[in-house]
Amino acid sequence: SFMQGSKLEMPLWLAKGLHDSKRRIISVELPKIYKEAWRTVFSADANVVDLHKMGPYYYGFGSQLLNFDNTENPQIAQTAFASLPQTFISRFRGIMDSSQNAYNEDTSALVARLDELERALFRAGQKGLNDFQCWEKGQASQITASTLVQNYGKRKLAELDA
């Protein structure tokens, strides 16, 4: 058994299960990367931070921590995670620029410091660049509309029929 006030690390799924609004079995302390000292680093220059080393799912995990807002410190969620979108925005441009400027290159160094969401964006940018280069060289048999555009067109047709 644990004494009241004991501290231990546990997986997110277990912490979410034990921290419900009625019983309050546990309270959750923010990981250091989401605390004020790190928010200061991010606001100074978010692009220098190795998010993958600090937590490969920085944005996703940070948004899950919003489940632990509690009565003892109601402003935790607002103060700790106000920097999440700003960090993402300030890093996004660099990620997309580097994905568009690295054609047929080893990109491992470019993605090493990115969290998994950012890596997915980088891969999407690379795929778009590669597809365009193939089309430009006449190597693409046809150009197809993206799923997003196709669905938008179907929705518009459905509205006209209604």
From TrEMBL:
SUPFAM superfamilies: GINS helical bundle-like. InterPro entries: GINS_A (IPR021151), GINS_bundle-like_dom_sf (IPR036224), GINS_Psf3 (IPR010492), GINS_Psf3_sf (IPR038437). GO terms for cellular component: GINS complex. Residues 35-135 form the GINS subunit domain. It is found in: Nucleus. Its main location: nucleus. CDD domains: GINS_A_psf3. Keywords: DNA replication, Nucleus. GO terms for biological process: mitotic DNA replication initiation. Component of the GINS complex. Required for correct functioning of the GINS complex, a complex that plays an essential role in the initiation of DNA replication, and progression of DNA replication forks. GINS complex is a core component of CDC45-MCM-GINS (CMG) helicase, the molecular machine that unwinds template DNA during replication, and around which the replisome is built. Belongs to the GINS3/PSF3 family. This is DNA replication complex GINS protein PSF3. It comes from Indicator maculatus (spotted honeyguide). The gene is Gins3.
